[in-house]
Each structure stands twice: as C-alpha cells, then as structure tokens.
Amino acid sequence: MSGTLADKYDFKVAEADCQESWKRLNTYAWDATAPKSESYIIDTPPPTVSGYLHMGHIYSYTQTDLTARYMRMAGRNVFYPIGFDDNGLPTERLVEATRKIRATDMSREEFVAICHEVVQQSEEDFRKLFRSIGLSVDWAQEYQTISPTSMKLSQMSALDLFKKGHLYRTWQPTLWDPVDRTALAQAEVVDKEVASSMWELAFGLEGGGEVVIATTRPELLGACCALFIHPDHPKAAGLLGRNAISPLFQVPVPILADERADPEKGTGIVMCCTFGDTTDIEWWREHKLPTRVILDKNGRLTGLERIGASADWPSLDQDSAQAAAAELTGLKVNAARAKTIELLTARDLVRGSTAVNRMVPSAERSGAPLEILVTPQWFVRVLDKKDDLLKIGSEIAWYPPYMQVRYDRWVENLKWDWCISRQRYFGVPFPFWYSKRPGEEGKVLFADVADLPVNPLTDLPRGYTADEVEPDPDVMDTWATSSVSPQLNSRAVAPGFEVDSERHDKLFPATMRPQAHEIIRTWAFYTIVKSYLHEGKAPWKDITISGWCLAQDRSKMSKSKGNVVTPDSLLERYGADVVRYWTATSRLGLDTALSEDVLKVGKRLTTKLWNATRFVSMQLKDFDGAPSTPKEDVAKGIIVCPVDQWILTKLSEVVRGAGELFEKYEYADALHLIERFFWNDFCDNYLELSKGRAYSDVGNEAEHRSAQYTLWHCLETMLRLFAPTLPYMTETLYQGLFPGRSPSIHNRGNWPKADDQFASASAELAGEACVGILAAVRKAKSDRQVSLKTPLAWLRVAPGATPPDGARELVASITGDLAATVGASLVEWADSLEGETVPTQDSAFALQLEFAAPAQE
RNA sequence: GGGCGCGUAGCUCAGCGGUAGAGCACUACGUUGACAUCGUAGUGGUCACAGGUUCGAUCCCUGUCGCGCCCA
Predict the structure, then answer these.
(1) Domain A595-759 maps to which CATH number in 3.30.750.44, 1.10.730.10, 1.20.81.30, 1.10.3720.10?
(2) Which of A30, A354, A777, A807 could form a disulfide with A803 if both were Cys (CB 3.0 to 4.6 A apart)?
(3) In CATH terms, is domain A193-363 a member of 3.90.740.10?
(4) Are residues A22 and A28 in contact, defined by beta-carbon separation less than 8 angstroms?
C-alpha cells in the first residue's frame, strides 16, 4: 500500500516540490463562496518596505502561519492575505538612501516613479522569503498600500471621517521634523538623551530689579511670552502680577503662577515660549498667551523683525531688539543657541549654567530634534473619544492578555489628536481642494466617491475649474492607510464607501490580527480608531502579539553590533521546517533568542521523524488493510492488543490536547505535547513493544494485523499533528506513505478529529504497566552495563508496594509484547517473590530477572 | 519619575499554594534488525533577596535589588 521513501531527506528538493504542488493545487486559497461563519480571517501585517529582511520577519510571520495552518486543517475557511506597506516616508527614505538622491532635487512625478521602482524589487525579496519559510498565504489576496484600490479605500476613509466630523484641518502647534520637513504624529516621536546645559538668564523687572530664569533653550528667548513660577515658590509673592522684561529684546512679559513650574528645577522660574515643548502649548492655551513663532520649517530662526513692530509683540527698546534679531536671523537652532549665549554674556546677563542631560523629543525616522511649529494640518479626533477607544480595546481578546495594558496606557495618555497629513510626496493624497470662489473662499471641496482615487494636483472637484480651487498638496501618513488594512482586504470602509460590499460583509471584522508589541501604540491603536470611527466596532476578534527575535546573547540584533543572522543563511543551513521549529518553540509576547541549540533539536526531530516513518513504512510493506478510524478499527475487532490500544489512547489525548492549545494560540505547548508523544511514547516505547508482532516474530496473524493497523493510524495522525509546524517534511512523508489520501496534508479539514480517536482506561493501565516494567528491566540491564539486547532466561513480575487493581490479569495481557521487547524466554507472574527484587518506578510491581547463559563463542 | 514584563539546573525555558520539571550541555554505560543526527541511566537547583499571609509559598501580598521594553 505504501509508497517509497528515500534514505535521506533533502529539504531543498522537498521544499521546491511542495511549493510547486501547493501552488498548482491552490492549497491555501480562500473560498469566497463559503459562509462567513466558517471563516478565519487574518489581518496580516503588511511589512514596511525597508530594504532588508531580518529574523524578526521570519519569527513573527511564522508564528502566525502556525495558527493559520492549524485553523485551516481544523476546518476553517482561512483568509490569509499578504500586503506590502510601500507608501509613505519610510519608502522615501529608503529611496533617497539607496539611490543617493533627494526628493527635493527633482519633480514630484519623477520622484514618485523612482519610489515605485524601488518597492518592486523590495517586495519581490519579501515574496521569496515568505514563500521559502512556508507561509500558507493566499497570494491571490496580495495588496499594496500604494495601489489604486488602496488609495481609493484610504481616500474613502478620509472622506467618511470628514463627513462624520472626525477629520478636521486646522492651524495648530504641531510636532515638526525640520530634516524631513514634515509634521509628525505623537507615535513617531522618540526621546533621545542629549548632553546639554541649563542656563540661568537674567530678565529685567518693570519697576527695577531682575528675575533669573532657567532654560535649556535660550535661543527661543525671542519667542518668550510669559514667565511661570510655582505659587509656593518663596519668590512668588514678590513677582506675581508684575511684568518681566526679556533680555536682548526688551519685551515685557507677564509673570504668572502655575504648579507645572517645578520649584526644584533650575531657579524654579521658567520662561514660556511659543513653542518650546508641550507644556508651553498648554500654558499658551490656558492663559491665552500670544503666538510668537520664530522658527521656520528648516529649523532656522526667522520673523524676529516683528518684535516691537506691533502692539501684541511690543518692545521697550526696538533698536536693541532689532540688533539682536539681525545677529540671530537665519541661524539654525544650535548656532542660534550659542549666539544667544554669546550676546547675553557680552551684556553680563548669564547668571550661571549647569551641565544636564535632557530628553529631547526627536523624529523616529530622521533622528532630528523636533520643533513645534504652527502649520495647517489634518487631524483625526481621538482626544474626545478615549473612553470609547478603551471600551473597544477591551472587546478584543488580547494574547497574551497583559498586552492590552499597553494599549490602555497609550490611550489614557494621549495628548494630541492624530495628525495624519505629511508634507511629502510618495503617499495617498488627500481628496480635498480649497475653494477660491468669491463668497466661499477656503471652503473644503471634496471628491465624489465615484471619482476616487483622485490626485488633487491634477484632478478637479466636480463643477469647478482649475482657477477656482487650491489643491491640498499634502499626502497622508503611512499609518493613515495601513490602519485600514482590514478594510483594504474587505474592500469597503463604511456604508456608502464601498468597492465591494459583499466581500466586506464576508471579511469584516477580521478574526485575528497578529503583530509585534512595539507597534501597539501605532498600528493596533490606529486600526482600532479607524474601525471604530467608520463602523463603531472593533476591527478584529483576537489580537496576538509577538515578541522580537534577539541575538544568541539576548541582545538586540543590530548591524552595528555585527550580530545579525540573516534568514537566508539559516534557511540554507537548516531548511525551512527546522527554522519554523525554532519559531514554534517560542511563545506569543515573549522576545526569544535565536538559539543554535534549539535549531539542532529541530534538525534532530526532523531526522527522527523521517527515520521513524521509514521504519513504519517497512513494517507496512505487505499491509493490505483498509483502515478507517482508530475508534472503528477497535470496534471492528481489528485492533485487539492492549499495547496497541494503549498507544491509541495516548494518541487520543494528544489530538484533543493539541487542538485545544492551538485554539488558544499556544502552539508551542501543542508542539511540545505532540513531540513528547512522538519521541517518548511512540518511538521509545511503542515501536519497541510492537516490533515483535510487527515483524511477525511473535503472536498470531490477528496480532500482527493489530500492530500494523495501529502503526498506520499513529503515523498517519502524527504527520497531520506535525503538519502546521513542519509543513514540508510532513507533506513529503504523507504523500510518500499515503499516496492519494489527500491532495495535500494541509487541506482544509484534515486535522485529526477527536471523535475518531480511541481511548480505553483499561488499555491505558495495561500500557503503563508494560512501560513501567520495561523501564525497570532496562535500568537493571543498564546498571549491569550490558546491552539492552542481552537476553533473559526469565522475568518474574510480582505486585509491588502499590499494585494496580487486577495486576495479575494486566500483566498476563502484555506478556507476549513484554517478553519480545526485553528479550526474555519466559515472563511469568508471581504472587510474591523471595529475595532481592527490582521495583518499577511507580512501585506498582516488583521484578526478578535472570540473564540467559552467554552464547558460546 | 510612571507603567508593563522578566529574574527557576551551566544554557534556553515550562510550572505557579502541598515532596522542584523539560530540552540542550555534561558524565557513565550500551553498536538493539528506523535512527550513534541513536538508546539507557546519571550528575546538577536554599525557584534574585528580605519581610508578610497560610497548617504549608517557587507560586499570593509588600518592599528591595538586577535586566528588558514602553511612556513621561
């Protein structure tokens, strides 16, 4: 019945063959005709086109694939797409770096065309990697966030949010990256520790005297609009209500009380500039302070000539103010800081300075220290929806559960609405224009849904001429589009904003979102925001959070440390199944060190599985039975031996346990269970115990058949249990040993069914007795340093300290297999034994044995 | 400064109220007719530290220390 297997497994050949056949058979295709209730919909992370592939990609994507493969085999109609997040600033930076160009040095069209070129190559690299690691994605569902359809859906999202009042455009203080010259969102900010100085500067006081403030940013002096002092500060009483006069510019500013002015820090008196940090913004809002912006989009000082030129920005000495302004205008922030100190020192107005380390908010991508500028930007309203967002977050099942805390904390601590406009090029344009028609100047004109996607720079809103509109020049941030990944798959964002409403009904919300923990505050959060604002519901039922792949020493892999292991090198050395094995032993949420040891264990497991299967295939060479299920084959009286029924009972426990664990995303525990069964129960014990009957050395024909049927069931079931983890080898073995049984082991519904398994408490007892006695005999032989093959003249089994019920009958039922396995001519029961005995580990039995006389040389 | 997680055998990690577990590594023995990429057995831990709750704590609580991440 069985096919033939090569002596050695060649993973390269097997991987190529399997990939070819899976593609030909469409093994992983989603069935669009099946009802939604059968679906398992995965909202796969579209990897950022970053130019290089790392172990993190393999690690987290394979974790997802383990679940995807299980769910498919367990009968779900799995929707498992892959996307590429190719739009936005990350791609622009990649393009600028690899092609050594600047976006600003060429036309917008030219730059965008080059971006498209670069992402093609990068995406092909990803496809190749994902295929070789064996991801069971449905390639027909591939998407790009820059594709026309994605643009259309992303613009639909913007239109829907705008019409619902969740999207607004306003001039407001915005985090600004002076290197990339674009606005940023809160999530794109990282703090960098920078050595700096805390300067103490003397302000004048109206009516005479001086007040010393402390600041790390003296260059913003020109933008000063107030001083703040803690109400409990000893000097507060004498200062509050008076005006201070800024040095150099001689601008009178009020001295105000506020608890956020830390009396322990510096002099305890601080200047508020529009804008130095987020506290300045809060003070500016609450105290309705004037707006004095002295930085431009490149981070240079500008606009200082306005000091003293108007009533809301007065100076007591305009000549002095303009002299200082002339020295500072056009300098970048750092140079302006040095110059300001120089000017102040010359006037003897610096009262002191201390070296401090300060945390500077910087751009995650460019690394530049951020400024706060007042620019027109598009914002998604989130600050007024914190409670709703927390509630939606709690409706999603988080794996592991504590990851939800990260989401909750992020939502609770939001300080900005979500800024989604970027002053860049390669991205989805806003489908908006501003009217120049007399009477409605500045009115927002939006595109008709039917016309999407639009490029406002070249297209026009219906009913308007080019002269009558001002196009919105910005593009959306990458996250504004990738945050609708569930909807990019389902092809609609909300009623009235649909590309394919039937598909949307089938695919939204999704079942599961896999992603890494560091992007909970970005990707998970934004996706929840959008889903909530569009349709009032959570985008997924479950979210599974993966950790990171660390280097062997548990440090972060990084090029600078030189500890980067590339996916290709591992796949080349070990093959995909072994690399997957390493991933499959890691749990959700935890960072995992790449381990050569674990890879070796995986290698050994695949070798063992190959050899065990080959061995069983030998035992089945003459097998002409027609197995149905373990349960039925026992019922039919085919599988009769206690040891056979015992291993099937153990198998049934593994089938049930592994399924339950996979359902909870505990694939590592499931694998462990399967592996232990395979190695310890099946290989170490069952194969040895059944050998005699399998070879027909002992027992009758019925017992031989019983062993064959059992071997067949165990192997056929185990291969399916291993299939999610080791897709290539199990497929190769399955097709080799059970040809024609299923086009692919990975087919939908091919997971072993718990109801088909056989279990018997009495068979389990008999098997345990057998294994216990076998282990004791092995130990006895090992203690005497003889081969386990050494024959015994006889073995006597008596009740131990805690014998099982019906011990005698139990032992009688297994003497045949036991005698064959321990190599005893005679195994007999004794009600009690005189002299020295060997107990089994569980004290169920006590043994005596006699070695056979050595064979004559 | 706040939040979250982690600290268990040499290493990687499970366990989480009732006599410490696995794999790797190490040691000894064994060529048994699938596999020496094997088998059998063994060495190895005051479960970070200090208090508390409990009949009993690796497990619960509090604090301390160390590590990582996230956020101020």
Answers:
(1) 1.10.730.10
(2) A807
(3) yes
(4) yes
Residue A623 phi, psi (nearest 5) = -75, 125
Peptide bond into A35 cis (omega under 30): no
Given a contact cutoff of 8 angstroms between Cβ atoms, the answer to whether A175 and A186 are in contact is yes
Using alpha carbons, select from A521, A737, A728 the residue that is nearest to residue A615: A737
Amino acid A648 CA to nucleotide B60 C1' distance, rounded Å: 40
**Binned average pLDDT, 10 residues per bin, chain A of 857 residues:** 70 95 97 96 88 81 94 98 87 84 87 90 90 96 94 97 94 84 75 80 90 90 90 84 90 87 77 86 83 89 87 88 91 91 92 80 81 88 92 92 88 87 89 95 94 95 94 91 95 97 96 90 93 96 89 73 81 92 88 84 93 93 93 97 95 94 91 92 93 88 95 96 96 93 96 96 92 89 85 91 89 92 90 87 88 63
The fold adopted by the segment(s) A763-851 is hypothetical protein PF0899 fold (3.30.2320)
Partner residues linked to A183 by β-bridges: A176
Name the nt closest to A611 by C-alpha to C1'. B34
Within a 13 Å sphere around the CA of A639, how many CA atoms are in the beta-carbon half? 32
Phi, psi of A340, deg, nearest 5? -60, -45
A421 in Cβ contact with A394 (< 8 Å): no
Residue the block writes with tokens 């805690």: A802
Hey, which residues does A662 pair with through a beta bridge? Answer: none
Helix, strand, coil share of chain A (percent; to 5)? 45, 20, 35
Distance A228 CA to B45 C1' (A): 59
Distance CA A68, CA A312 (A): 64
What does the domain layout of chain A look like in residue ranges? Answer: 193-363, 595-759, 763-851
